[in-house]
């Protein structure tokens, strides 16, 4: 087992607490088959002088997943010159996750942490720049929170010492509520994905739950065009034959 | 927020994506701080081809930092290979001399020392941070705030 990052400094009243979904991502990224896939694509030994890969996690929450990757780069990628970047719509999560990643790098592999920026999905990321994309989205079929209050809930207002109960509830709702089929946020992200992913070596890991209809989602991705592949590479919570959570790996096979 | 991060970001507005002037974002009224980090020489050598040097030069100019050279340094300018186990390079010694034939360069992972060029590059990319200020899109003029080191790229509903 690779070391799991410490999140003891994070306040889980307003930032998503690592749960089964988060741990499924950690487990999947450390299976021998994923390590073999990622080494083959990125390891220094296989591609002398290849440029440092950029890992982007959208919706970092506590930062547990990004910190896991940043702290275990030599085991996962076979190199340490890995760049990590995160986004979250929740500013409190951005601050918490930065701390989590910094700690993991200090305690484990010395990879290169950029920043966690407060953004909507990957809307601010340059085209073709992402080598490894990771997203554990808000996937529960539940009504999306009313975003018109976001600006006031996303910060402590002047003189406010801690977040209000209403504010915390809103921020946690953002972390799980996924609209119709739990796919409203994920669908928007999938639209951006081909634009930000590096066309040659880009690969994405996306978490889905059974209610998201993973088979349909994968088929839609394959229909993006020639070369696009989407395969389940991790599952957890088997209930009566229904795998509750899936990790889907999305990438492009080169036309060679 | 580190200056290297700006190498990977553009304006968040959809309508700006196709406009070349939406990259890089331009820092304004920025308050900088230097946060010390360990030099990762392998990283510095490998990142060179990924750096948008001209844009980086623009940004450092706008921040009032010392002017960067017109072109990115060569990979070979970032390190000197130390000759023997305990021998360290003496300042002022021509790096070429160290690679002299009597000290054949090791094939794998030679003992390498970062040059001042590498240390300066490290300082700019990974240690110089925008603590407070704004990032402005060169195409639409939208200003994104940086507060306590966290940049906010969320757009008001009507701009998405
Ligand atoms: C299920 S949590 C996952 C958190 C963390 N990655 C983990 O695995 O434990 C989803 C995260 O996505 C964030 N999020 C929700 N909508 C978002 C959006 N439109 N843009 C960026 N982040 C978003 C939430 O704030 C939350 O931190
Ligand atoms: Zn713009």
From TrEMBL, chain A:
One annotated GO biological process? methylation
- Species of provenance: Pleomassaria siparia CBS 279.74
Indicate whether Transferase appears among the record's keywords.
yes
Q: What are the GO MF terms of this UniProt record?
A: protein methyltransferase activity; S-adenosylmethionine-dependent methyltransferase activity
Q: What is this protein called?
A: N(5)-glutamine methyltransferas-like protein MTQ2
* A GO-annotated cellular component: eRF1 methyltransferase complex
The UniProt keyword set, sorted, is: Methyltransferase, S-adenosyl-L-methionine, Transferase
Protein's UniProt keywords contain Methyltransferase: yes
PANTHER family according to UniProt: METHYLTRANSFERASE N6AMT1 (PTHR45875:SF1)
TrEMBL record, chain B:
Q: Which InterPro entries match?
A: Trm112, Trm112-like
State the residue spans of region: Disordered: 90-115
Q: Name one GO molecular function term.
A: protein heterodimerization activity
GO biological process assignments: rRNA (guanine-N7)-methylation; tRNA methylation
- Spell out the Pfam families in the cross-references: Trm112p
Q: Which family does it belong to?
A: Belongs to the TRM112 family.
Output this protein's name: Trm112p-domain-containing protein
């Amino acid at each position: 087992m690779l070391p799991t990052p410490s999140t003891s400094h994070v306040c889980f009243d307003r930032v998503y607490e690592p749960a089964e979904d988060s741990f499924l991502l950690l487990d999947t990224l450390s299976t021998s088959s994923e390590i073999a896939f990622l080494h083959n694509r990125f390891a220094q030994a296989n591609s002398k002088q290849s440029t440092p890969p950029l890992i982007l996690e959208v919706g970092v929450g506590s930062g547990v997943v990004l910190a896991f990757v940043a702290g275990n780069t030599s085991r996962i990628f076979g190199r340490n010159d890995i760049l990590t970047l995160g986004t979250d719509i929740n500013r409190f999560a951005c601050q918490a996750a930065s701390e989590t990643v910094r700690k993991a790098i200090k305690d484990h592999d010395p990879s290169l942490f950029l920043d966690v920026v407060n953004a909507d999905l990957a809307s601010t990321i340059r085209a073709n720049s992402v080598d490894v994309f990771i997203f554990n989205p808000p996937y529960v079929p539940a009504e999306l929170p009313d975003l018109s209050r976001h600006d006031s809930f996303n910060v402590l207002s002047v003189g406010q010492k801690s977040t209000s109960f209403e504010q915390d509830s809103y921020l946690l709702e953002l972390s799980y509520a996924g609209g119709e089929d739990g796919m409203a946020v994920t669908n928007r992200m999938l639209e951006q994905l081909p634009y930000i992913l590096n066309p040659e070596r880009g690969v994405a890991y996306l978490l889905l739950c059974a209610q998201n209809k993973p088979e349909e989602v994968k088929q839609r991705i394959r229909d993006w065009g020639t070369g696009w592949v989407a395969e389940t590479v991790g599952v957890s919570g088997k209930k009566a034959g229904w795998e509750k959570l899936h990790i889907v790996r999305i990438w492009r096979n080169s036309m060679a | 927020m580190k200056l290297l991060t700006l190498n990977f970001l553009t304006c968040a507005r959809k309508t700006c994506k196709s406009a070349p002037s939406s990259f890089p974002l331009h820092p304004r009224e920025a308050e900088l701080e230097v946060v010390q980090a360990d030099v990762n020489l392998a990283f510095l050598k490998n990142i060179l081809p990924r750096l948008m040097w001209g844009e980086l030069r623009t940004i450092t100019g706008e921040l009032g930092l010392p002017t960067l050279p017109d072109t990115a340094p060569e990979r070979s300018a970032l390190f000197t290979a130390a000759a023997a186990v305990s021998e360290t390079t003496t300042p002022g010694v021509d790096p070429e001399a160290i690679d002299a034939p009597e000290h054949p360069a090791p094939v794998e992972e030679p003992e390498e020392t970062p040059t001042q060029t590498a240390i300066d590059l490290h300082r700019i990319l990974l240690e110089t941070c925008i603590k407070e200020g704004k990032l402005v899109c060169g195409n639409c003029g939208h200003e994104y705030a940086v507060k306590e080191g966290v940049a906010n790229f969320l757009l008001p509903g009507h701009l998405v």
